[in-house]
User: Fold N-(5'-phosphoribosyl)anthranilate isomerase from Brevundimonas vancanneytii.
Amino acid sequence: MLDLFLMLAHLTAMTLTKICGLTTPDTLDAALQGGAAFVGAVVFPKSPRHIPPLHAATLFDRARGKAKVVTVLVDPDDALLSEVALILRPDFIQLHGHETPQRASEVRRLTGAGIIKALSIRDEADFASVADWTGVADHLLFDARPPKGADLPGGMGASFDWRLMQNRALPANWFLAGGLDPQNVSEAVRISGAPMVDVSSGVESAPGVKDRTLIKAFLDAASRS
Assistant:
């Protein structure tokens, strides 16, 4: 049923949404009730949104059949991949580090999960690797390039020039991320033409603390985009 919903959403040009970095039942429920198509768990100890696989498995079980479950990993080793696949069983693994297409193919083989690959964007040159991911990733996610020396690869509330996405040959099912919030998501979709959007810090009251009201406002705004 959920896959049919996703297909119909694409056919009707509906903007699909992903709420990432969820850590509590009430905020996950807010995402599900608001119609998020994807919900994300961040398994990365440096992140304020980190949640261990066993905790994530217990929490995200309530999302099965309602939204696609995504696990965000950063340059994961095989041991972590095995743990996530066995315990959490995500629909997708979002690779948010320096993974190569070859490594992504190994991740798919080891876990059986679909692949979302995050690409950091600052300027035109950052799109050079897009073609390398054709046939490898199910979805690409375009996020703002973090400042040099940053501990986190994303979730920092920074955005990039959305005009860079215009008139560009891209795979059909890509996400726009980076600095999105309830106030700017409609404009971001209008400028970029994004079919899907991803938010994390933009629906938080403090780093790692999701806000139900902001989640609802973001999903409502995205649905009108």
Observations:
- The beta strands are 16-19, 38-42, 68-73, 92-95, 114-121, 139-144, 174-176, 196-199, 204-206, 209-210.
- Helices lie at 2-11, 25-33, 53-60, 78-88, 101-111, 185-192, 212-223.
- The chain has seven helices and ten strands.
